[in-house]
Amino acid sequence: MSLSSILSSFPTLRLPHSTQERLNLVLGTAAFIGTTTVLLPAAYRDYRTFKSYGQGGVPNNVIGWLVVRLFFQPFCAEMLDTEVYSRRIDAAEGHGKGDDGYLTLSEEQLTTRSPGNRPQVGPHVVPQRQLTQLPDENIKEKFRAAFRSFGLRNHHLVKFSRSNLEQHADGLFLADHLPITDLAVSMLGEVAHIHQGNDHSAHVVLAPADCKRVIEAGWGQRHGFSGTSAMTYLSFGTLPDLPAEYILIYAPRTKEEIQIVMQIISASVMFMTGREDTR
């Protein structure tokens, strides 16, 4: 078989001849290069941000990043609105003590943060982490110690176990002898955890009145899946949905703020157990 016959078996490449065809080719090539130039660096920066969170509820690698961006992110809800808590307070739902809640923080303590100066929280719905206003290593260590001490001191109400949601650190769970409420069932018994390997923010479950107070004071925000059916849908029914009362508490930056966050965690335990004898 001759070379010419072999070449003739391939489709003929048609080159643009007219001015319009050449222009279309140039514009298409420019658009492809421009889009690639913009999107690839942006995607890489987004991935680097995701990697900076460290361990969380999803793998901290390319696969985890793609899963979050492609499948989880479309279900992310607004995270600062408190109307849902106002409705629950008005309807007297749950055992959140009406308008009072369980928090005993003073206005002076609450105003050490402000809603206009919140830390920047990462753009990914999972894992939920803050990127700015981070504590130093000394404060992180003191916060972990305070959390551990609180759990051991309140063994009549809570126990330590591996967090169902974070899977990399221990969280506080209802003690085995306590009755399980519907809310506790939805959380698989988990009350609170801190992100010990990362920013040292925390997730807690608070009474509706306390959620409203904490968020409006600038101390936290809702999780992107809180109060939605995303968890059940994305886990094919293997995980329950996060209640609306599941919120993020920003990391403490000082010894005084550690005390404030620990009071919030104490209020979470009281809400989930229905008891107020925390120590």
Automatic annotation (TrEMBL):
Signal peptide: none annotated. Residues 189-268 form the Luciferase domain. It comes from the Eukaryota. This is Luciferase domain-containing protein.
